[in-house]
Write a structure and sequence with these properties.
The complex is a heterotetramer of chains A (324), B (381), C (265) and D (269).
Chain B: H1 2-18, E1 29-35, H2 42-61, E2 70-76, H3 81-94, E3 97-102, H4 106-119, E4 123-125, H5 131-135, E5 145-147, H6 152-165, E6 172-177, H7 180-194, E7 202-206, H8 214-223, E8 227-231, H9 234-246, E9 253-256, H10 264-268, E10 276-279, H11 288-301, H12 307-326, H13 331-339, E11 343-344, E12 350-351, E13 362-369, E14 372-380
Parallel strand pairs in B: 1-2, 1-3, 3-4, 4-5, 6-7, 6-8, 8-9
Antiparallel strand pairs in B: 10-13, 11-12, 13-14
Chain C: E1 7-16, E2 19-29, E3 34-38, H1 45-52, E4 60-65, E5 68-69, H2 75-81, E6 83-85, H3 98-104, H4 114-119, H5 122-142, H6 157-169, E7 175-179, H7 187-202, E8 206-210, H8 214-220, E9 223-228, E10 231-236, H9 238-243, H10 245-252, H11 256-260
Parallel strand pairs in C: 3-8, 3-9, 6-7, 7-8
Antiparallel strand pairs in C: 1-2, 1-4, 4-5, 9-10
Chain D: H1 2-12, H2 19-36, H3 41-67, H4 72-94, E1 109-112, E2 115-118, H5 119-141, H6 143-153, H7 155-160, H8 165-187, H9 197-212, H10 217-237, H11 243-257
Antiparallel strand pairs in D: 1-2
Helix pairs in contact in D: 1-6, 1-8, 1-9, 1-10, 2-3, 2-4, 2-8, 2-9, 3-8, 5-6, 5-8, 6-8, 9-10, 9-11, 10-11
């Protein structure tokens, strides 16, 4: 790496660190609240990217994993008195187990069956959350979730009840989750996932077991998504069936499609931009979803690789030029 | 292709930027409102907004409050706590809003209550009906939350009290939508009946957006309850009433029958005679204030008001009145003024908050006789 | 033929909608040899190799690699057991680099588990270094060294064929099954393919080659099997088979029946 | 409704997310024809069906033609985008206020064996039966119908025998979406009309085509009837809310145990 490249990289890293810490430094609760939302969506979009972008399975069940993680951790804290730090991991595990069962059943048939079953799962979760009143309190939800307590060396137990502090927690989780996913997709596992997506038969002929790798991707994705849900609702202090809103699915899809399926930083970037921009610019809510729809159509028709695909195309052109 | 690709994001950015509205030059009093503008219950948000807009327009036409214009910023919450927390925190962060209005959905209100308490900005709830909102407010709870509309429990109690007087509380079946509205209506009915030694004969919930009710009507007809308590709103209510009529179900209705939304033909047919209903509001109430309100609303929005628009209208009036009495656009002063509210409603009763910051407005008891809606009276909730 | 061949196939039968593509086929491939599988269009060659590499399930039949039964096991298990293959339609991981294309072909064979790879353990590092070295070596053999870091989609048709052949050799499998390695490839490239095949065979890899180019087969193979209408028509050394009147009849005056049995090719 | 979806899937291999929105558009157009232009019931039905079928052609030409058979996932995403635009566009244009379509038959009932049945329901049932019969006849008796089935079963072979896939697909899109419009028109006078009405329907329709077997029109029709019967049975004897779960549970059971659908001849996806 050249000296200029190193300097640029150092600049980029420090800018990123500053941007991440911004919500902690800026006054007021709004930057932190927005930061929580951005960090959460970065994890959600990356979870979908792992399943759709890398593995090629279009999953509508991400919102189900999110909501299951949310309900599980809320119920464990409220009814069983667990600490949130254990409960949100349990939420992720429950989501992952459910994801594995459903994926195993549907992937035996085909990846198309998986898409349709994942859609049903999301809707079924919504119905269960509304109607298993004795467990979920139905449409009334579980309000008044207590603020978690964090043991800080030297300070003792600190209540995480301010968005600023909560942002710190969510940010730490998001960094760990994204780092883990980054490591996964840049390991042999990620290579195998892409191979399965690109050409399943060829991958099999190389000894790759598609089902096993797909299950692994879905399991990890559901785990992280469920954990994100388990944390997020403690920021809201309430969990109700609207956690399964189909709107979240649409938003995640837009993030992955515009960022570029299979492009790690493309999707993270798209998640940040799409969760921040409409809010910061106060975009007219009436037409936001119409615009999302148009973006989706335009992206699928004219721009199928998203930002990540565009970068890959440039790389290909560079190679063509270099070799000709 | 490549050129289009590069231009697209820029074009989108311009669209977004174009939507940003410049701030006004003079300094009005700012109020925030969090309601569903998109999503499944956008219809209710629309009516809440219309009601508030009418009250604000009237106040501004009369010279504003404390000599300043009032401006309301309506933010969408999709009836989803996550969206509400984001947009309300954003509004609170700007520090220019002196109060918040509505929230509309109970889950949303419960989620934003801690936010406004921390920011020390009063929240006046117009339409969220969950009993929990009032239980957590006022003395010993959230001192910044006020609720103008009656709770589900108190409305159901008013209805059952009237039914008991008429000797009609035995063998009531329940049919309601599967939301906090229907669920807490059922709980309200159940406990009100329980206090009188009765219970619901059966309970059924349907998913919001259900179009066809033939099956449940068939079941109810076979079951033959003495009356059917209905908790339905919007499109579902219209579907229900039409199918109730065309299948000739014939079981007297009670509960929250939206008298103003029954098609004229069905009403005139007499099929609904014997129906009783409890509403926080109905346009048919014959007071001068209400008649003027209905006319003004129709003129401004081209639609008749419903109970949501009415409640938002009254709630906005309560808030404006408190700002006037506070004498300054200061959240804490407004909160104190809200506590001392004593304002006549359009229905002729006094709006006052109890120790839980809950107003006990009158509920309207209606019945249908000879194809006509008859207001039987107002009952304290 | 030795008593214990590398690959033994017994009684393989596969029908599609009532048409028999492979009919009670039995054959063996001896270790260290290059065996050619030829026959007219629709004689069942592709179906045969699809079955013995686990990509299709035959109705009847069993097959063994070094005496271990592989019957009924999934395709990836065949690959791990040591049966590598290429496809008639050229397949490569388009957007991955040539190096990754080749490394993928070996990563399920070197005993490094996925968590070792996640943890970036020493065994992973060693295995990855070895795979990279092997990939460079094979890219050198097929003449694609310059493209090592480029995405596979940049390659021409012939170059992709070379890449897939190289990939099939990556894991030093016991048996490599090549499905039409030189179809649509220009004569210079054919020479190069031949060279690659001889070279890996010298390393001890056994090959089973399906090909229409009879000259190519005759030059390379020590043993040739001829199929017609799903049945074994003849078998033996190239010269022997070439002179067999039944083979000539099958190739020159192809019967109607064999064409009807055709489903693919 | 489900039949149209099944036809689109069969011929185009496209899962149409926007189908519910075309149903909604059909109902909305019905509302404007009746409430504003005072068109009678039957002309309204015909007008709406044709108008929505025309929209189907536009949709196909503008968007679907480019993804046909290319990628299952892309077609889902594309039609999801269309659905978002139509649904939210309708909210922005017409607000979410529910509307009633008051036709001349609104309050007419027929009595059969002591049971009162609204005339409009009889009409809707008859229209559905007629649509099914017509579609079945077209698919099995006419040249173009055979071409459609051929395309659904084996696109390459169809190309070889001289079928123009674009023309056939366009027609299939028009018929499929036109059926959604017909459903909207027939049901608009029975149910209330609002922009989000299509959303709930389309998921149920998905369940129906999975149970019926993707791309199998006959299966879809029978599955729809069966689902209706099972749902009313459940509503009659169990809490009403279970009704909504029936379709999804049936779908999941079928996917697990009978993935090719009722008759086992649907396209394996």
């Amino acid at each position: 790496m050249t000296a200029a490249g190193r300097a640029a990289r150092a600049l980029g890293v420090s800018a990123a660190v500053l941007a991440l810490l911004g919500p902690l430094l800026l006054p007021g609760e709004y930057p932190a609240t927005l930061g929580i939302s951005i960090a959460t969506f970065a994890v959600l979009a990356t979870g979908l990217n792992l399943v759709y972008g890398y593995t090629g399975l279009l999953s509508f069940a991400q919102v189900a994993f999110f909501g299951i993680g949310a309900y599980t951790s809320a119920l464990l804290v409220v009814q069983r008195g667990w600490s949130l730090w254990v409960a949100f991991v349990a939420g992720g595990i429950v989501a992952a187990l459910l994801g594995l069962v459903v994926a195993h059943a549907s992937l035996r048939l085909s990846r198309h069956a998986f898409s349709i079953v994942s859609l049903s799962l999301a809707l079924l979760c919504l119905i269960v959350a509304r109607d298993w009143v004795s467990l979920t309190r139905g449409p009334m939800g579980l309000p008044g979730l207590p603020a978690p307590r964090l043991l800080v060396p030297g300070l003792g137990a600190v209540a995480v009840d301010r968005p600023g502090v909560f942002y710190g927690v969510v940010l730490a989780f998001a960094v760990v989750a994204l780092a883990a996913t980054h490591r996964l997709v840049h390991s042999r596992v990620g290579r195998a996932l892409v191979a399965i997506k690109l050409n399943e038969a060829l991958a099999q002929s190389h000894g790759v077991d598609p089902l096993r790798y797909r299950l692994l991707a879905i399991g990890v994705s559901a785990l992280l998504t469920g954990m994100a849900g388990g944390l997020f609702v403690f920021h809201l202090t309430i969990v109700d069936p609207s956690i399964f809103d189909f709107y979240y699915t649409e938003t995640m899809l837009i993030m992955v499609i515009t960022g570029g399926p299979g492009s790690f930083w493309g999707v993270v970037g798209a998640a940040v931009v799409i969760s921040a921009l409409p809010d910061l610019l106060r975009f007219s809510t009436d037409l936001r979803m119409v615009l999302y729809g148009i973006v989706l159509i335009a992206a699928v028709l004219a721009f199928p690789g998203g930002v990540g695909g565009w970068i890959a195309r440039r790389r290909l052109l560079r190679w063509r030029r270099a070799l000709s | 292709m490549g050129r289009i690709d590069r231009r697209l994001p820029i074009a989108l950015l311009l669209v977004w930027l174009g939507a940003v509205t410049p701030a006004g030059a003079q300094e009005p009093i700012h109020i925030g409102s969090s309601i569903p503008i998109t999503g499944g219950v956008a219809f209710f948000g629309q009516h809440s907004r219309w009601g508030t807009e009418l009250a604000i327009a009237e106040a501004n036409a009369a010279g504003g409050v404390l000599g300043r214009k009032i401006e309301v910023n309506f933010q969408d919450n999709r009836c989803n706590p996550a969206e509400a927390v984001k947009s309300v925190t954003q509004m609170l962060g700007e520090k220019k809003y002196v109060a918040m209005l509505d929230g509309l959905c109970s889950g949303v209100v419960l989620a934003i209550m801690p936010l406004i308490e921390r920011a020390q900005i009063p929240l006046v709830v117009a339409n969220a009906s969950a009993t929990a909102v009032a239980e957590k407010s006022g003395a010993g709870g959230n001192k910044w939350t006020f609720k103008v509309n009656p709770t589900d429990a108190s409305l159901a109690e008013a209805m059952v009290a009237w039914l008991a007087k008429e000797g009609k509380i035995a063998n009531i079946a329940f049919l309601g939508e599967d939301t906090d509205f229907g669920r807490s209506g059922m709980l309200g009915f159940q406990s009100a009946l329980g206090r009188r030694g009765q219970k619901l004969a059966s309970t059924d919930f349907y998913q919001q957006g259900t179009a066809d009710f033939t099956a449940v009507f068939t079941k109810l007809r076979a079951q033959k309850p003495a009356s059917l308590a209905l908790y339905a709103i919007a499109a579902d209510f219209q579907n229900l009433i039409r199918q109730y009529h065309s299948f000739g179900v014939g079981i007297p209705l009670t509960g929250r029958v939206l008298s103003d939304q029954i098609p004229k033909e069905i009403l005139a047919s007499g099929a609904l005679d014997g129906t009783s209903s409890v509403q926080p509001y109905t346009p048919e109430v014959e007071t001068a204030g209400n008649k003027a309100f209905v006319a003004a609303f129709q003129k401004m929005h081209g639609n008749p008001p419903n109970l949501l628009s009415y409640m938002s209208y009254e709630t906005t009036r309560v808030l404006l009145d408190a700002i006037k009495r506070a004498g300054k656009a200061d959240p804490a002063a407004i909160r104190d003024a809200l506590e001392k509210t004593k304002l006549s409603s359009l229905l002729g009763d006094e709006i006052e908050f109890d120790k839980n910051n809950l107003a006990h407005k009158n509920a309207v008891i209606l019945t249908i006789k000879n194809g006509q809606i008859v207001v039987l009276g107002l009952s304290r909730t | 033929m030795t008593a214990d061949p590398l690959l033994a196939v017994r009684g393989l039968t596969k029908t599609y909608y009532g048409l028999t593509a492979v009919d009670d086929l039995t054959f063996a491939v001896a270790a260290g040899t290059i065996v050619g599988l030829i026959g007219p269009n629709g004689s069942g060659k592709s179906t045969t190799i699809d079955c013995i590499s686990g990509f299709q399930r035959p109705d009847v039949g069993r097959w063994f690699l070094r005496g271990t039964e592989l019957t009924g096991r999934p395709a990836h298990a065949h690959a791990r057991a040591g049966v590598a293959r290429t496809f008639q339609t050229v397949r490569a991981y388009e957007t991955l680099t040539l190096l990754d294309n080749l490394r993928l072909a070996v990563q399920e064979h070197d005993g490094v588990t996925w968590w070792q790879s996640l943890a970036r353990s020493v065994s992973w590092r060693d295995a990855e270094a070895e795979a990279t070295a092997r990939a460079h070596e094979l890219l050198g053999v097929v003449g694609l060294t310059n493209y090592a870091g480029a995405p596979a989609e940049i390659l021409s048709y012939g170059q992709r064929k070379l890449l897939t052949i190289a990939a099939s050799m990556m894991a030093r499998p016991a048996l490599v099954v090549l499905d039409e390695p030189v179809a649509g490839v220009n004569p210079t490239m054919i020479r190069r393919v031949e060279e690659v095949i001889r070279r890996v065979n010298a390393e001890g890899v056994t090959l089973l080659i399906v090909e229409h180019n009879v000259d190519f087969i005759m030059r390379l193979c020590g043993h040739v099997i001829v199929l017609d209408a799903g049945k074994k028509l003849a078998e033996g050394e190239p010269a022997e088979v070439r002179g067999d009147p039944r083979v000539l009849a099958a190739y020159l005056g192809r019967g109607r029946a064999s064409r009807e049995a055709a489903r693919r090719d | 409704m489900a039949m149209g979806l099944s036809l689109i899937f069969g011929v185009l291999e496209i899962v149409n997310f926007a189908h519910g929105e075309f149903y909604m558009l059909g109902a909305m157009i019905a509302y404007f024809l009746v409430a504003r232009l005072h068109v009678g019931y039957w002309p309204m039905i015909a007008g709406v069906t044709l108008a929505v079928a025309a929209l189907g052609v536009v949709l196909y030409e503008a968007l679907l033609a480019s993804v046909r058979g290319r990628s299952f996932e892309r077609s889902i995403l594309l039609t999801l985008g269309v659905s978002m635009v139509l649904q939210n566009g309708a909210i922005a244009l017409w607000t979410t206020t529910p509307r009633m379509v008051e036709t001349e038959y609104a309050y007419t009932n027929v009595t059969a064996g002591g049971i009162r049945i609204p005339l409009l329901r009889v009409f809707a049932l008859a229209l559905a039966a007629a649509a099914f019969a017509a579609l079945f006849t077209v698919l099995h008796r006419t040249r173009i119908g055979k071409a459609m089935r051929g395309l659904a079963q084996n696109p390459d072979a169809a190309l070889m025998v001289g079928i123009d896939p674009r023309a056939v697909s366009r027609l299939a899109g028009a018929i499929g979406i036109g059926l959604a419009g017909l459903a909207g028109a027939a049901l608009a006078p029975i149910y209330s009309v609002h922009p989000t009405m299509g959303f709930a329907f389309v998921f149920k329709a998905f369940a129906v085509i999975i149970v019926g077997g993707l791309g199998d029109v006959r299966g879809a029709a029978i599955a729809a009837v069966a689902l209706g019967v099972v749902e009313s049975f459940v509503a009659g004897f169990f809490p009403l809310i279970l009704v909504d779960a029936v379709a999804f549970v049936a779908m999941i059971l079928f996917l697990l145990f009978r993935p090719a659908g009722l008759f086992g001849r649907g396209v394996r996806v």
